[in-house]
Design goal:
Strand content of chain A: 5-15%
Order of helices and strands of chain A: HHHHEHHEHEHEHEEHEHHHEEHEEH
CATH topology of one domain in chain A: Aspartate Aminotransferase, domain 2
Number of strands of chain A: 11
Distance between the termini of chain A: 53 Å
CATH class of one domain in chain A: Alpha Beta
Oligomer: homodimer
CATH architecture of one domain in chain A: 3-Layer(aba) Sandwich
Number of helices of chain A: 15
Largest sheet of chain A: 7 strands, mixed
Radius of gyration of chain A: 23 Å
Strand order of the largest sheet of chain A: 1-7-6-5-4-2-3
C-alpha cells in the first residue's frame, strides 16, 4: 500500500469510524452472535494474493459487525465504562503511524518525556500525593492494564521485603499479601504469577458496605507474624469492580506504615472521579500508598489500553524489574539522566501511549473532563434514587459515584431472568455480581455519550 | 469532539501520516534530542479549557518530532525491524474506533473468533506443527510482546512440573530453567517475576555460532537432578537478538522429551522467515515444542504490539492463568464452547489486535509478504558478502537471514567511534552487541520500505 493508497483508504476508515460513532445506538448493545458463527464465515486458508481493501471493509461490515458488543454505545452499562473519544482515537492513529518504540529513552526521547510529563500532569489533575511526581523519588508510567500494575506492585513489595533477594534466589519463604474479597481478581492472579501463591493471599473482612476492615487486617498481620510467615503487601481498592466500594485508605495506610508493608491502591474503576475536587474523598489517606493506579481507559475517555501507575520510590520498581543486556546499552542510559520505561513494566517493548492521553487532556481540557465525570455521578445518584423510591426494587450498594448495584425484590432466578431479558433486547447491556450471596445487577454509568435520556430509558426497560 | 469534527480531524491525521510515510527519509533516523529537551517545551500544568486540534498538531510537529527516532525509516537498521504498513495502521485505527474488549468471548465474539482464526492461518502460513492449531488441544493467542509469551510459557512450565500446585502454594522448591547466554533478556526477567529466581537460570554453552549446545544442556540437567533441584523449562531461540543465531531445536527437543521438560521456542526475531518454504530450516524440530512465539510486529509488517504465542496444550496455560470472579461469569463461558482469552495472558483486558494482522495478511496476501521477506534476506546475504570481501572488516555472525554482525578490524574504540559517527550523521541507525568479548555492529534489514539502494548507501557510509 503506497502512501497515496493509505491516504485514500485512511479517509474511508475515518469515515467508517465517524459513521459508527453516529450510528452506534442502532446496533444491539450485546452481540447476539452464537459460538462459532463468525468463524464459519471466514475462509479456512489465508489468501495467497492481495485482496482489495473494499473486500476487507465489506467483510468487516457483513461478517464481523454482528459479532461486536458495542462498548462505545451510550446504552452500555456493563462491567465498567471503557471509553474512547475522538481525540483518543486520533492519538492512537498517530501513535500507529509513527510506529516508535518507547522501551528506552533513546529509542524515541519524545515518547518517554511526554509520558513522564503527562503523568506529572495527572498528579496535579487528580491532586495525588506529591511523592508520585517524577521530580522527587517517585514517578508515573503507563501500563496496559491495572492487572499489570498490581503485579508490578506486588513484585516490588516482594523484593523490598526480601531486600531484593527473591529476584535472584527465588521465593524462599512464605510471603503473605492482604486484600479484601472484594478486590479485583488480578490480585489473586498476581499472587499466582509472582510465586507467592494464591493460598497466601489473606482475605480481609469487609463491612456492610463491602469496605475492607482495617482492624481485621491488623489482626491477620499479627497472626501471620506469630506463625512465622512474612507479611509483604496490602492491596486496597478505590471502587471495587463488584460494587464500587472504597476501602478506608487512611486506616489501612496507618496499619501498613506501622507494619512496614507495601500499600498498593487499585483505583482502576474510580480514580478518575478525583478530577473533581468534591469527589476527592475517595483518595483520603492516599499519602501512605507506595503505589497507585487508575485507568483513563475506563472513565477518562482514553481508549484502551491506558492504565496510569505511580510509585513513591521508583528505584524499588526499577531494582525489581531492571534487565540490561548489552544490545540495549547506550550513553543516555549510562548517564543516568534519563528514564528508561522498560524497567517499569513486565514487557520490554512499548507503544507511544502518552500521545492519546495528551490529546484527550488537551482537547477536552481539565474542566471538560470534570464536567462529564460530574454528570455521570449525577446520573448515578439519580438512578440510585429511582431504585430507592421503587418498592419493587432494592438498592444493594452505591458508594455515591457512578456504579449502582440493585436487585428486584424476589429470587435470584427472577433477577437472572430480568438481566437476560434486558441484554437480549439489545437495547441496553448490564452485567451482574454476587453480594452477600445474592445475585445483583450492576448499573455502571460512564460512557462519553451517555446522557440522562439513556439512563432514564434503561430504568424504564428495567421496570417494565 | 463530535463525529463530524472527528471526521475532519481524522482526515487531517490520515494526511499527516501519509505525508510522514512519504517524507520519513528526510528526518535524522536517530533523534538528536538531548535529555530534557522535549519536556522543557511543554507547559508545566495541563490546560483547564479545551485547546484546538490545530495547536495540538502544531506541537506534534514543533516539539515532539525532533524527539522521534524514526523506526519506520528504510534507513533504520537498529535493534530489530519494527514495521508498520498501511493496512496495519488501518486495522489499528478500526480497533481504536470500535473500542471493544476481548477479555471474554462474550465481550465481543468477533474479537475472539477472528483471533483464533487468524492464529490458525498463521500455523498454515509458517508451516508450524499441527499441534498448535485450535482444532486440536493447542491454539494461538496474540500477546503484546515476546517477553509476555516467555513469561506465560515459564509459568505454565512451573505449574506443569509442580502438578499445578505452585499457583496456589507458592514456589516451594528450587526450580531450574535453561537457556543460552544468547537468549533474550526476557528469559531472565521471567525467572525473576515468576519467583524462580534469576540465579536458577542455567546458562547453557553455545558453539562458535552462538547456538545452544544440546550436549551441555543435557549435562546441566543431570547435574541439577543429582543435586536435588527440579528442572522445569528450556527456552530455545530462533534468531537471537544479538546475532540471529538459531538454536538446534531437534536435539534440544529430544533432550526435553527425554527429561519431560517444557520446551519454549522464542522466534520473536526470525520466525516470520518461515513464511518462505526455503527458510523453514529455522524451525526444524519444532514439533517437540510445548510453546512457540514470533512477532509480526517485528518482521511481518504489523505495527506493535502483535506477538503470536502458540501452545500445544492450551489447558496447561489456562490452568496456570485462569481466574473467574463472579462478575465475569456468563453462559457462554460456562458452556465450555468458547475461548476466553483472558485466561491465556497476564492482563485481563485486551484490544482487538487480530484486526490489524488480518488486514495485513489480506492486503498483502501470503505471496506479498513472502516477496518482501525474501528480498530482505537477499539484501542481508548481499551485505554479508560485501563485509566478507572488504579486508578492512570482518564478518562476525550471519545465520543466513536478515541480521549481520560485523566489525571493523581494529579496537573496540574504533568500532564504537564508527557507530557513533554513523548514528550522529542521522542518515542511518545501527546498534551494537558484544560477541566473544568484542564490540560488534549489528545490521538488521527488515523495514517494509528498505530497498537495495538503502542497504548500499549504508555500506558506503560505513566504509567511508
Amino acid at each position: 500500500m503506497t502512501p497515496e493508497e493509505f491516504r485514500r483508504e485512511g479517509h474511508r476508515v475515518v469515515d467508517w469510524i465517524a459513521n459508527y460513532m453516529e450510528n452506534v445506538e442502532r446496533y444491539p448493545v450485546l452481540s447476539q452472535s452464537q459460538p462459532g458463527q463468525i468463524r464459519e464465515q471466514l475462509p479456512p486458508s489465508p489468501p495467497a494474493r492481495p485482496e482489495s481493501f473494499d473486500s476487507i471493509l465489506s467483510d468487516v461490515d457483513e461478517i464481523l459487525m454482528p459479532g461486536i458488543t458495542h462498548w462505545q454505545s451510550p446504552n452500555f452499562f456493563a462491567f465498567f465504562p471503557a471509553n474512547h473519544s475522538g481525540p483518543s482515537i486520533l492519538g492512537e492513529m498517530m501513535s500507529a503511524g509513527l510506529g516508535v518504540q518507547g522501551m528506552l529513552w533513546m529509542t524515541s526521547p519524545a515518547c518517554t518525556e511526554l509520558e513522564t510529563h503527562v503523568m506529572d500532569w495527572i498528579v496535579e489533575m487528580l491532586d495525588l500525593p506529591d511523592r508520585f511526581l517524577s521530580s522527587g523519588d517517585g514517578g508515573g508510567v503507563i501500563q496496559d492494564t491495572a492487572s499489570s500494575s498490581t503485579l508490578c506492585a506486588i513484585l516490588a513489595a516482594r523484593e523490598r521485603v526480601s531486600e531484593y533477594r527473591i529476584r535472584e534466589h527465588g521465593v524462599d519463604r512464605t510471603l503473605v499479601v492482604y486484600a479484601s474479597g472484594e478486590s479485583h481478581s488480578s490480585v489473586e492472579k498476581a499472587c499466582a504469577i509472582s510465586g507467592i501463591g494464591t493460598g497466601n493471599l489473606r482475605i480481609v473482612n469487609v463491612d456492610d458496605q463491602q469496605r475492607m476492615d482495617p482492624q481485621h487486617l491488623s489482626e491477620l498481620i499479627q497472626q501471620d507474624r506469630e506463625s512465622g510467615v512474612t507479611p509483604c503487601c496490602v492491596v486496597a481498592t478505590v471502587g471495587t469492580t463488584s460494587t464500587g466500594a472504597v476501602d478506608p485508605l487512611e486506616k489501612i495506610g496507618s496499619v501498613c506504615r506501622q507494619e512496614g508493608l507495601w500499600l498498593h491502591v487499585d483505583a482502576a474503576m474510580m480514580g478518575t472521579a478525583a478530577i473533581c475536587p468534591e469527589f476527592r474523598f475517595i483518595h483520603q489517606g492516599l499519602e501512605s500508598a507506595d503505589s497507585y493506579c487508575f485507568n483513563p481507559h475506563k472513565w477518562m475517555f482514553t481508549n484502551f489500553d491506558c492504565d496510569c501507575f505511580f510509585v513513591a520510590d521508583r528505584n524499588a520498581l526499577i531494582r525489581t524489574l531492571s534487565i540490561l543486556p548489552e544490545y540495549l546499552k547506550n550513553q543516555a542510559t549510562q548517564s543516568g539522566a534519563v528514564i528508561d520505561y522498560r524497567d517499569w513494566q513486565i514487557p520490554l517493548g512499548r507503544r507511544f501511549r502518552a500521545l492519546k492521553l495528551w490529546f484527550v487532556i488537551r482537547s477536552m481540557g481539565v474542566e471538560g473532563i470534570r464536567e462529564r465525570v460530574r454528570e455521570h455521578v449525577r446520573l448515578g445518584r439519580l438512578f440510585a434514587e429511582w431504585v430507592k423510591q421503587d418498592s419493587r426494587f432494592e438498592l444493594i450498594a452505591h458508594a455515591g459515584l457512578n456504579l449502582i448495584c440493585f436487585r428486584k425484590r424476589g429470587s435470584d432466578a427472577d433477577n437472572r431472568n430480568l438481566l437476560d431479558r434486558l441484554n437480549q433486547s439489545g437495547q441496553v447491556y448490564l452485567t451482574h455480581t454476587q453480594t452477600n450471596g445474592q445475585f445483583v445487577l450492576r448499573m455502571s454509568i460512564g460512557q462519553l455519550g451517555t446522557e440522562e435520556a439513556h439512563v432514564r430509558r434503561a430504568w424504564e426497560l428495567i421496570t417494565t
